[in-house]
Amino acid sequence: MCSLRILLAAVLPSLLLTSCSKDPVQHRFSNEQLAWQGYQAGEVLRFGRDRDAQVRTYQVAKIDDIMEPQSGFFIGTRPEYQRIIVEVQRTDSLSRPEQVLELRLPEAPFDDRIVHALAGWESYRYASLPIDVVNRGAAIDTSAYQFPGVYFLPTAVFGAVTYSQVIRTDYRPYTGSATPSRITRRLYYAKGKGVVAFEEVGKGLWYRLP
Question: In the 8-state DSSP scheme, what is residue 191?
Answer without folding.
Answer: T
